[in-house]
């Protein structure tokens, strides 16, 4: 967009320079018209130069018509340039608003992520604690199971000794 704006600015400067040249040409032609007017006052010169005066007058009329067309064209181009400037301003405002919205959204998402990280850390701590508790309970149960197996083995030994003693008795 900035390249388009620069291109338009260059074109506008070019047209302003053209307009200045046209104004200078108008002044020169006006001076020529004054001179022609002075020459018109002199009948003798007027008769000799009547055809050239007609040509110059036609040229001046043509130049005036061209100047009028250029002035209209320049006004139209200024209107277009103003429209483009307004559009560019609106786009810049829209872009700034969008950036602010995105910054706010990023900030909100960052805060939400931070909260989730805190929650995950808390859950990990609780999971670690539960894991330790489970290991301790498993160790206790393994010890109790080993004791139970040992007691069961002793019970079977005593039972077989009792059976053997009953036979002997």
UniProtKB/TrEMBL annotation:
It is found in: Cytoplasm. Its main location: cytoplasm. It comes from the Eukaryota. One of its GO terms (biological process) is de novo centriole assembly involved in multi-ciliated epithelial cell differentiation. Residues 57-126 form a coiled coil. GO terms for cellular component: centriole; cytoplasm; deuterosome. Keywords: Coiled coil, Cytoplasm. This is DEUP1 protein. It comes from Phaetusa simplex (large-billed tern).
